[in-house]
Write a structure and sequence with these properties.
This protein is mainly α and 83 residues long. The protein has a domain of 58 residues. Helix content is 53%, strand content 0%.
Length: 83
């Protein structure tokens, strides 16, 4: 292209409306898929939280020596009195 002064303008090769890859992905994302993914992530997080809560609420029975009777020791001692 030639300007009024007779100068030649260089051709514009690059696109002036450059968008990043992320912007293109966000603009082209399906809205229905987004809702489905949100629901699935929420269900996943709730199920993991429920599993951790269930595990945390389970009572732990620790046998400490001297607190409860040792029935195995009593049976073996009565069967072998000489030992």
């Amino acid at each position: 292209m030639v300007t009024a002064l007779g100068e030649v303008e260089p051709k514009k090769i690059m696109n002036e409306n450059f968008e990043s890859t992320y912007a293109l992905l966000v603009r082209s994302e399906e809205k229905g898929r987004s809702v489905l993914e949100t629901v699935l992530y929420a269900i996943f997080i709730l199920s993991v939280t429920a599993g951790i809560w269930q595990f945390a609420q389970t009572p732990v029975k620790v046998s400490a020596p001297g607190i409860e009777r040792c029935y195995v020791c009593d049976i073996s001692a009565s069967q072998n009195p000489g030992v």
